[in-house]
Amino acid sequence: LGARDLQRPAVAARLTAPLRAGRDVTTLARGRVRRLGAEATPRAGHGQVTAALDTNALLVAPPGRDRLEPGDAVTALLVGAPEAFPLPPVLGVIGPSGVGKTTLVERLLERLAGEGLRVGALKHDAHEFQMDRDGKDTFRFRRAGAVAVAIASRTQRALIAATDRATTLAELVASLPPDLDLVLVEGYKAEETPKIEVHRRGLPLLCRGGVSDVVAVVTDDEEAPLDGRVRLGRDDIDGALAFVKRFLRAQS
Fold first, then answer.
1. 34 strand-pairing partners
2. Tens of pLDDT along 167-198?
3. Which of 25, 27, 94, 139 fits as disulfide partner to 61, beta carbons 3.0 to 4.6 Å?
4. pTM for the full model?
5. CA-CA distance, 209 to 225, in Å (whole number)?
6. Distance CA 111, CA 238 (A)
């Protein structure tokens, strides 16, 4: 067929429905990956071409069992257009400089990772930032005129690229691995995504000053008017963690 790009992104997924497999062969089943997990497409025999319309992955079941059950792990090879892949839930953390946004994100990351969740983090910087430094090969490539430079090792990779406009939050989230359970975002207060505001007594509340989609406020001011939003104490990381887990359950 003239195909050239034969390598497909692969993600780990857990089945939400049984999957018939072959005990002595590897099974490839048309399926769909969603936030809750993956399941094979019904009536997906080799001759039923229309079954591919609701497919965004090939589920790979290794030999050894003739039936996999809900909760079993499979590898999903993503197929189709990138917009067909399920993006992870996004939760923003906003507030003025110096109120503790980074500390909250850091503590949440530690706790969520400790519970086995795969969480990505994004940071919006209102100023120019420099990830490269003089003397490095990538710096020399950019200085010589490259508009984009990528570097990769066995365990990590990075892309440094010049842009002619501000990068949107949706573009950044789409560039992350597709199998994340959550993306925590520091900044991007103008984006239409659920947000936690970090607030200190005496400062104006952003959620009452025009910033939309604030669903919870971390504050040391017990009298701050939150208009029905969830109130979290500044040192209550257990409460913040419980809120994030409720948010994830609501998104699934």
1. 37
2. 888 878 877 876 788 999 999 999 989 999 99
3. 27
4. 0.69
5. 12
6. 9
Low-confidence ranges of the chain (pLDDT < 70): 4-9, 35-36, 43-47, 51, 80-86, 178, 252
Is 198 within 8 Å of 212 (Cβ atoms)? no
Q: HEC states along the chain?
A: CCCCCCCCCEEEEEECCCEECCCCCCEEEEEEEECCEEEECCCCCCCCHHHHHHCCEEEEECCCCCEECCCCEEEEEECCCHHHCCCCCEEEEECCCCCCHHHHHHHHHHHHHHCCCCEEEEECCCCCCCCCCCCCHHHHHHHCCCCEEEEECCCCEEEEECCCCCCCHHHHHHCCCCCCCEEEEECCCCCCCCEEEEECCCCCCHHHCCCCCEEEEEECCCCCCCCCCEEEECCCHHHHHHHHHHHHHHHC
What is the residue whose two structure tokens read 């997906």? 44
Cα gap 19→59, rounded to integer Å: 9
